[in-house]
Amino acid sequence: MWLRILAHVYDPFLWLGEHTSMRRRRRTLLHDAVGRVVEIGAGTGLNLRHYPDDIAELVLVEPEVTMRLRLARRVKQHARVAHVVDARAESLPLPDASVDTVVSTLVLCTVDDPERALREIARVLRPGGQLLFIEHVRSSSRLLAACQDRLLEPWRRFAGGCRCNRPTVELMRACGFDVAADDGAWRCMPPIVRPLMVGRAAPAV
Ligand SMILES: C[S@@+](CC[C@H](N)C(=O)[O-])C[C@H]1O[C@@H](n2cnc3c(N)ncnc32)[C@H](O)[C@@H]1O
Known about the structure:
The protein is an alpha/beta fold. 38% of the residues lie in helices and 24% in strands. The protein contains five helices and seven strands, in the order H-E-E-H-E-E-H-E-H-H-E-E. It has helices at residues 2-30, 65-77, 114-124, 142-158, 168-174, and strands at 36-40, 57-61, 83-85, 99-105, 125-136, 177-185, 195-203. It is globular. The N and C termini lie far apart (43 Å). The mean pLDDT is 96. The structure holds S-adenosylmethionine. S-adenosylmethionine binds next to loops. S-adenosylmethionine (SAM) is lined by residues 40-43, 46-47, 61-64, 67, 88-90, 105-107, 110-112.
């Protein structure tokens, strides 16, 4: 029930953060999406407007039903051709080496099994393919990281399963990805989700 409510308040809750910086970050990141693109945890579709017109195919994966309905509505509004798919990042209904770009924005904090999701991403990516990501992560400040640890459970319950203290880039590297990322701040959002990593990753060859 709470997840459904969350889907309705998601865009208003993010509005200030989107308009102060996140929208620009999405646009810059997604400029590099090419070929067959799969977005995991596409949510309400805040990335949709930023995809280049010349990508070959867009597959939007979203497991939560209310999010998926809003996503489908946004696909129509933007008059985009996209396939909306009910699936989890841990089990993508896609053949091996069939995808050029995987996109994950603010999702790897929420998936239940991020290592499994990263293995799936590596499986579906073609040689030379890339994961483009914006993720909020565990802080490099000891004080803020301690706050993230302390507030993990209440935040997780409020934010639909989001683990605010997850060291996502370290997980990517541990799962065999080469990562190039910059850090940043998700402005106008609670401090525990402010530390961001933005970049690209590819399975090491
Ligand atoms: C914080 S929202 C991010 C939505 C969107 N990517 C964005 O940038 O606004 C996290 C999304 O991940 C989805 N999600 C949760 N668990 C997932 C999983 N295991 N695989 C894929 N998506 C998942 C949620 O339903 C939700 O839509």
